Amino acid sequence: MTGVLVMGAGAVGCFVGGLTQLAGVPVHFVGRPRVLGALRKHGLRVTDQDGLDRHIPPLQLRLHEEPPAGLKPDLVLLCVKSGATAAAATELGLTLPEGTPVVSLQNGIANTPQARALAPQLHWHAGMVPFNIAELAPGHYHRGTGGALAAQGGAADVALAAWQTALAGVGMKLKLHADLAPVQWGKLLMNLNNPVNALSGRPLRDELLERGYRRVLAALQEEALDLLDAAQRPVAQLSPLPPRRVLKLLRLPTPLFRLIASRMLRIDAKARSSMADDLAMGRTTEIDALCGEVVRLAHSLHRSAPLNACMQALVEDWPRRRRAYTPTELLAAMGLG
Ligand SMILES: NC(=O)C1=CN([C@@H]2O[C@H](COP(=O)(O)OP(=O)(O)OC[C@H]3O[C@@H](n4cnc5c(N)ncnc54)[C@H](OP(=O)(O)O)[C@@H]3O)[C@@H](O)[C@H]2O)C=CC1
Ligand SMILES: CC(C)(CO)C(=O)C(=O)O
Predict the structure, then answer these.
(1) Which of 28, 161, 176, 289 is the most exposed place for a label (fewest CB within 10 A)?
(2) Does the beta carbon of 238 sit less than 6 angstroms from any atom of ligand 1?
(3) Residue 191 has pLDDT above 90, yes or no
(4) Nearest residue CA, atom 3 of ligand 2?
(5) What is the pLDDT of residue 68?
């Protein structure tokens, strides 16, 4: 590969882009001054829970505040939060040659179609990042959970296949799917924990060890699964158990849950959901791309999704509240007490 462009150098962009560069591919990072400044000063360090610890010195990083004119990357990784998709897709459309492949590594379902509508001359692929990335220090990005990357495509997608080979060289799996929609919905079910985690104010592992928070998550997932069944949309199994069995697991008393869910609990002690980062930094959250997507699915079926709608409202009310919910408070606020 001659070059990859990361659009949105943040947690996902720096980690996946860093791995790509460590695999020998030249990577251009487009980001904000805060992140670029840290990368210029400290370089880029990528670590993971399996012992990876690599550093790219500042002088080897190609850093930009906007996509450089005239660049012809083989592949672009769209790594901005959902609220920034429209602006980023428009910028890419104005700069990149027609037909450039772009993989959205974002959560939610609607980012790729939204971006495609704004820059139809680019070749858009949905993608999925299953693992958590935390910025542990300026310029230091850490993978705190496991799993393989996924993208919509096949062997005929030359740039994706080349990226897959490059990533394999640094131990990162990328699975290509003819239809990524079931995987995206499977990931969205997992992401229904993002607001629970954000409102709990706790790291992911601590939050999941509280039965009250798990009951809220199970209720949100069950509502979504019922709607997905009604809409006859298949959902991929992204964990060792099928989604309906996960509901049962989540509702178990904590000592049993801790025993049975040891794989789910293989999470770095400090890891938090990406929405927890947004609340902490006072940024717009992706709640509309997660619970909001479930509410829209319900409306498309002339039904409602009261629990996901309630969770969306609680997250949107955060700027007024700014106080973490205990498990009992969250259950009560959701009408599940
Ligand atoms: N973090 C995680 O563990 C995971 C995240 N994801 C998903 O990946 C996506 C990215 O998340 P994450 O990496 O956490 O997000 P971050 O906020 O850490 O990174 C995105 C960065 O891109 C910047 N940005 C936005 N628009 C532009 C632009 N037009 N030009 C240059 N820079 C821009 C943002 O700046 P600003 O803040 O100013 O907008 C921000 O610094 C989300 O959809 C998220 O849900 C998926 C799996 C795991
Ligand atoms: C990996 C996971 C599910 C949880 O951290 C995530 O996607 C996120 O934080 O947005």
Answers:
(1) 161
(2) no
(3) yes
(4) 191
(5) 95
95 with 122: CB under 8 angstroms?
no
pLDDT tens-digit readout, 119-140: 999 999 999 999 999 999 999 9
- Distance between CA atoms of residues 267 and 143, nearest Å: 9
List, for residues 271-285, the tens digit of each pLDDT value.
Answer: 999 999 999 999 999
Enumerate helices (H) and strands (E) in the chain, giving the number of each. Answer: 16, 12
Q: How far is CA 81 from CA 46, 86, 127, 238, 304, in A?
A: 20, 10, 14, 22, 26
Q: Tens digits of per-residue pLDDT, 53-102?
A: 999 999 999 999 999 999 999 999 999 999 999 999 999 999 999 999 99
208 touches 214 (CB < 8 A): yes
Determine if the pTM surpasses 0.90: yes
The rounded Å distance from CA 129 to ligand 2 centre is: 8
Proximal ligand: closest to the CA of 285: 1
Residue 84 CA: nearest ligand 1 atom is 26
Cα 12 from Cα 133, distance rounded (Å)? 6
Distances (CA, A) of 238 to 45, 72, 293: 28, 34, 19
Which superfamily does 4-178 belong to? NAD(P)-binding Rossmann-like Domain (3.40.50.720)
**CB-side exposure of 33: number of CA atoms within 13 Å?**
0
| Encoded amino acid at 224, one letter | A
Domain residue ranges in the chain:
4-178, 183-333
Query: Which of 44, 62, 81 for a ligand 1 pocket mutation test, highest count of atoms within 8 Å of Cβ?
Result: 81
* 25 CB-side CA count, 13 A: 30
Sign of CA dihedral 209, 14, 108, 129: negative
The domain made up of 183-333 has a fold known as N-(1-d-carboxylethyl)-l-norvaline Dehydrogenase; domain 2 (1.10.1040)
Which residue puts its alpha carbon closest to atom 17 of ligand 1? 10
* 312 close to ligand 2 (CB < 6 Angstrom): no
What is this model's ipTM?
Answer: 0.99
